[in-house]
Inverse folding.
C-alpha cells in the first residue's frame, strides 16, 4: 500500500493506492525474465519514467529509488507520521505501507505497547512540547527522526491498560469514518 502524509490522521491512516517497488539491485534483464508482465507494463511508460528529475535520474528507468533506507519497509507494526504537520498526528501501520518522502516512520524497539506510545505521542502534552521544541516551518512542524526521538514516552503505570484499550477503540472508530 502507498501512503502519503495527507492520508494520516491522529490514530489512523487510509491507503488509497498501491505502489510497485522494484529493488535497485535488480537488472533490467532480471526484471524482464522474472516479472514479464510488470516489465511490459513499466516499459509502456519508459519515456515518462526516463524524464524523472528533469531527465537527470541517477538510477535505471524502471527503478524507483525511494525510500533510501528500506530496512524498516516490511517491518510491522511501525509508528508513522506526516513529515510536516500543524500538530502531532501519529498512527500505527500494520499493513507494511510504503511511504513517500513526506511520511516518517519509526519502529518501536522497546517493551512499551505501540498503542500506548501512539496515545502518548498524540496527547496534548506532547503536542505542546513539540510545538515548543520541534523545528517549525511557517505554521507547520517537521516530524523527522531527530526531534521526534527527543519526545520521551515513559513506561505505563499499572492500570494504564484501560488507556491502551481506549486508544485502540478510538483508532477503530476514526478508521471506520
Amino acid at each position: 500500500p502507498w501512503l502519503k502524509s495527507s492520508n494520516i490522521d491522529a490514530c489512523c491512516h487510509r491507503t488509497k493506492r498501491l505502489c510497485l517497488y522494484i529493488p535497485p539491485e535488480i537488472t533490467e534483464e532480471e526484471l524482464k525474465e522474472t516479472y514479464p508482465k510488470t516489465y511490459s507494463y513499466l516499459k509502456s511508460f519508459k519515456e515518462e519514467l526516463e524524464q524523472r528529475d528533469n531527465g537527470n535520474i541517477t538510477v535505471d528507468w524502471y527503478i524507483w529509488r525511494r525510500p533510501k533506507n528500506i530496512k524498516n519497509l516490511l517491518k510491522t507494526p511501525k509508528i508513522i507520521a506526516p513529515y510536516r504537520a500543524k500538530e502531532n498526528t501519529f498512527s500505527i501501520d500494520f499493513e507494511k505501507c510504503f511511504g513517500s518522502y513526506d511520511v516518517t516512520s519509526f519502529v518501536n524497539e522497546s517493551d512499551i505497547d505501540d498503542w500506548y506510545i501512539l496515545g502518548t505521542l498524540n496527547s496534548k502534552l506532547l503536542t505542546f512540547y513539540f510545538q515548543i521544541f520541534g523545528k517549525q516551518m511557517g505554521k507547520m512542524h517537521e516530524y523527522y527522526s531527530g526531534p521526534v526521538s527527543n519526545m520521551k514516552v515513559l513506561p505505563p503505570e499499572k492500570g494504564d491498560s484501560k488507556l491502551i484499550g481506549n486508544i485502540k477503540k478510538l483508532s477503530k472508530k476514526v478508521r471506520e469514518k
About this structure: The CA atoms of residues 63 and 168 lie 37 Å apart. The chain has eight helices and ten strands. The first helix runs from residue 28 to 34.
